[in-house]
Amino acid sequence: MCIHCGTPVPSTAADSRFCCTGCAYVHALLQEEGLEKFYELRGEQTLVPVSTQALRDQDFEWLAQATREAEEKALADATVARLHLGVQGMSCLGCVWLMERVHQQQPGAGRITIHASRGDLEVEWNVGAFAPIEFAKRLQHFGYLLGPSTGIGKGKPAADDLVRRMGLCGAFAMNAMAFTLPTYLGMSRSFVFAEWFDLVAACSATLALLLGGSYFAGKSWRALQHGVLHIDTPIALGIGAAWLGAMIGWATGVDGLKYFDFVATFIFLMLVGRWLQQFAVERNSRRMLQGAVVADTVMVCHADGSTEAKAIRDIAVGDSIRLKPGELCPVRAQLSSPHVGISLEWINGESAATERTSGQLVPSGALVVSNRPVEVEVLESWEGSLLQRLVASDRPEHVFSPFVGALLKWYLAVVVLIGIAGGAAWLLMGSSVVTALQVMISVFVVSCPCALGVAAPFADDLANGLLQRLGVFVRTGFLWQRLVRVRSVLFDKTGTLTAENPTLENPEALDTLDPASRQALSQLVHASLHPISRSIFDALGSFNIASQQDASPAVEEVVGMGLLLQAEHGATYALGRPGWKDDGNYSGNSEDVVFSRDGKRLAAFAFEDRLRPSTRAAMDRLRQSGLTVQLLSGDRHEKVARIAAQLGLEESAWHAEMTPDQKAASVRQAGASQTLFIGDGANDSLAFDEALCAGSPVTGKNFLERKADFYFLGNSLRFLPDLLSVAHRRMLAVRCVFTFALVYNASAIALALAGVMSPLLAAVLMPASSVVTLGIAQLMLGQWGRKMKGQDRKTDPQTVRGANGEVALS
């Protein structure tokens, strides 16, 4: 495991202690500055691996604007300036401690409040005394990225609302139980305060119903309006029946119907279960900054040389727009600038940069990788562009499988029929209406689905915890129900099966450089967006090169050739095509770029598209389990063929040069209702929409990560078979819980039909059954999790049920 973040270390890693160069860099920085206490506070918790993107230059123009607005407001109100900011990369108490220490080191630092659960922070300072941008850059050195806050001022997260409901309903439940307990202990009805005790219990149950019960009733009603049976329907039915019976019993003086404590306690437990589900989903979503995929405005250039910001939806054919380095071209356009480098990886998955000259077309979604702004003439509106279509696409949310939906319908029908039949039977036997009503309501009360409301969310939380050890984070609550239906796994290539950037084949060439040359190389590639530059920057991350973060060298780009740097001591460094600025012999085969000083070759680098670590082993395990594996790529045929050969895929199992529509069609052909798709680019968006479930690596593009059912960190795909294994283990745990619940409900209903189900017995059985179901889930998943952690997977095979049955995954 990586000694910095705790995620698995790929077998191909240059340093067996770290999963990536980002973690190695931050670890060295912590050691250098005496901040090792971070690891003591982290404990055994898995952290977010440090993306090398967190160490590259970031555009803080938004933060500069936010700072100006905050200070202007502070001056007008004669108070301190204040900013709410989102944080990416914060995982544990150690992260909070480290961020506080970094803040204290900044000149003019005021108060800081860090909300780890919300993934944001608040800073205050006296105007002019503190520089938020410098603070953001300093945090970036340690792998934390700041962005606009998404929670404060824009509505509280759903989990926060549940916490408030849960806390108040917990208090109401304690009140109801406290004032009902004397009755269970034999308090006489003639006691002077007996009626007051009933009144307090009734008020507590009613308040719990209004505050907490309305949550389930509202969701159930909205689902029924759309003709869908929701999981909250039986919960709402049981809560409503218990409260109605209790009120009737209170009004008529029938103690056998007073379920006040049951109502309040049951609502509290159901809210706890629902909070478990939503908290995990929101927590994982907040691990990433939720910035816009495409900027809302673009800079339009006028004939007189002036510029103005214009909403992207308002740009028209003929407008001239200016694009900054790293900005996407939102629409199809014609290049006005003389020469520019662009990347089409978002559109066709091709990682190599291409060149465009004045008059040539720039497609919608092209990324500017040159280090200077470019101008293009708009050829289509935003509404008609490919990028708008991909950004606007969305995934449907089908929460339940057909089996679960049918089970809910039968469950409700059977419970209602048994309750009504039981009440009618007692009437026919000559009992009073009150007795018959007591039997019917008791059936509704004791058959409430505690397993669905508490144990299943608890099993989800345990499963989420198992995946986090592998660097996988679940974003949607319905993922587990879908994963067990997967029979086909489809992959994008570039950035998914392979690394996001070409891999440096000869990193040992970096070791031959002297410190001055190494720093010059770092300065050359630091701000460059070219895939080759990003690869070299990633490889340099293993060196302690913190000084380059503070340097602002003047790097000249010669598009199509390379980069030039004039060093302070007069030397000229160049990184580019062989033979461009170097005097070495060019073989033409093993060199992609050459690094030179004053024309003298210092190092030559070769690159290739390389599979992520453990990819072949993960693919083999998936195929062995009976799953169908396919590769869908927009990249060139020869490059896809080479990767497919490395994976052992037959010719029919891979496809090249695919458009987004063709990828979506392939998902439908493979069986959308049983397909898992994993991709990372905008060209995968339509395929995401078709697939049963979808996952994405975290690339920093902030696009598919936001619509994926799960995302993963780190460089390895070894987690994928384990992801499916956890899903099936979770399903087994839930089935065991349901089996117990079925036996419990059958026994409890039998007691209710026999007329012996009292409120006291219901109040005892309900929490007791919930504890048992939680214990079953913990036993099934907790024990299996310890095996995952304590044993090597090669000697402790797990299982996954594929289309051909259950086989070992070694």
From TrEMBL:
Gene Ontology BP term (one): copper ion homeostasis
Localization per record: Cell membrane
Membrane topology: Multi-pass membrane protein
Domain of life: Bacteria
PROSITE patterns, A to Z: ATPASE_E1_E2 (PS00154)
Ranges for domain Putative metal-binding: 2-47
Keywords attached to this entry: Cell membrane, Ion transport, Magnesium, Membrane, Metal-binding, Phosphoprotein, Translocase, Transmembrane, Transmembrane helix, Transport
Record-linked Gene3D superfamilies: Calcium-transporting ATPase, cytoplasmic domain N, Calcium-transporting ATPase, cytoplasmic transduction domain A, HAD superfamily/HAD-like
Domain (P-type ATPase A) ranges: 296-392
Region (Disordered): 788-810
One of the Pfam families matching this protein, by short name: E1-E2_ATPase
Chain ranges passing through the membrane: 166-187, 199-217, 229-251, 257-276, 410-429, 435-459, 732-754, 760-781
PANTHER family xref list: ATP7, ISOFORM B, CATION-TRANSPORTING P-TYPE ATPASE-RELATED
Similarity-based family: Belongs to the cation transport ATPase (P-type) (TC 3.A.3) family. Type IB subfamily.
Name of the featured protein: Cu2+-exporting ATPase
